[in-house]
Write a structure and sequence with these properties.
With 321 residues, the chain is an alpha/beta fold. It is built from 11 helices and 8 strands. It has 2 domains: 219 residues, Spore Coat Polysaccharide Biosynthesis Protein SpsA, Chain A (Alpha-Beta Complex); 71 residues. The protein binds uridine-5'-diphosphate and magnesium ion.
């Protein structure tokens, strides 16, 4: 094997950043796989408040490796609790900023094949500012998930002007140093990285890959969390959901006015017609529903403003090993 310290002298510093949350089953395997890539110079793991043996396994690995200088240097940032993947990634980016020329963000659960890294680095050395791994494995997901995901992308791209999201482009990326700096400057909460990276405007090159199924452990996504994430995406990149209420209100008022004229006209012609219970109920419930949705959307934006104005730190670090 090549001596990593020697190769570092003339190869650029490419660091790998991965957030881990309860990954005891795969973490050693993950570090092993990265260890065999000589093109990278350091691995930075962020423990996002795991309650299992993840930290212990990483520290064990670090101790064993310290004796060999051809092994991949490893840093562990231990967060004080589970802050969520987006905050954990931000902790990683804050830490590596200014120390390396490119960063690779990858999931620690081995669903992102580490072997793609060499290809990503090659594209970056050919001038790419961002390299995005795009998965082409829709067949592995349930039909419902594929359908809802594609519906989300259509809605998002339809109403957001500033950026276009690509289906399958996730969190497996190479970011050059200026992009890392840009991302760490954006301190908003409810971070939606999928959108933040294209929003910076740096040019991306795409590489397609097959995502593998998780070999162990569980995904932390529930249908509810996915729905919330989808709203995060749309609400943090568009104000259109706020604006449609004016339009909807105008349309409903206009139609009611027409209906009022119709009632006057028909009363004059045929006299008063007493029945009307059903149509009244429908109108009341329909309008009540619409108003509640409107208030809900308002509430969501206000909630975001509330969280952002508190401007709390995104995470706290207990220890750096
Ligand atoms: N993760 C994290 N904090 C969390 C949830 C997940 O750091 O609160 C990490 C997790 O360890 C993994 C990556 O984020 O490395 C992706 O998580 P997961 O596999 O649950 O998501 P999916 O691959 O299904 O999108
Ligand atoms: Mg995963």
């Amino acid at each position: 094997m090549l001596d990593r310290l020697d190769t570092n002298a003339d190869t650029p510093q490419v660091w790998v950043v991965a957030a881990c949350f309860n990954e005891e089953a795969v973490i050693s395997n993950f570090i092993d796989r990265l260890n065999s890539l000589v093109s990278i110079s350091r691995l930075v793991l962020i423990d996002d408040g795991s309650s299992d043996q993840t930290v212990k396994k990483i520290l064990e690995y670090k101790r064993n490796n310290a004796l060999f200088k051809d092994k991949l240097p490893l840093t562990l940032l231990q967060l004080t609790r589970n802050f969520g993947k987006e905050s954990a990634m931000l902790a990683g980016l804050d830490y590596v900023k200014g120390h390396c020329e490119a960063v690779i963000l990858i999931d620690a659960d081995l669903q992102h094949p580490p072997e793609l890294i060499d290809q990503m680095i090659k594209a970056w050395r050919n001038g790419a500012e961002v390299v995005t791994a795009v998965r082409n494995d829709q067949d592995q997901e349930s039909r419902l998930k594929v359908a809802t995901a594609s519906w989300f992308y259509k809605v998002f791209n339809g109403i957001v002007d500033s950026i276009q999201l690509k289906e399958g482009a996730g969190d497996y990326r190479l970011l050059s140093a200026p992009v890392v700096k840009a991302l760490t400057q954006m301190r908003e909460f409810s971070r939606f990285s999928k959108g933040l990276v294209p929003w910076t405007g740096y040019q991306s090159v795409e590489i397609s890959y097959q995502r593998v199924a998780r070999i162990a452990g569980n995904t932390s996504w529930t249908p509810w969390k996915l729905l919330e994430y989808a709203f995060d995406g749309i609400f943090s990149f568009s104000a259109i959901p706020l604006k449609i209420w004016t339009f909807l209100g105008l349309t409903v008022s206009g139609l009611s006015l027409l209906y009022a004229f119709w009632i006057i006209f028909s009363t004059v012609l045929h006299g008063i017609d007493v029945p009307g219970y059903a149509s009244l109920m429908v109108a009341v419930l329909f309008l009540g529903g619409i108003q509640l949705i409107g208030i809900g959307v308002l509430g969501d934006y206000i909630g975001r403003i509330y969280v952002d104005t508190k401007a709390r730190p995104h995470y706290f670090i207990r220890a750096i090993h």
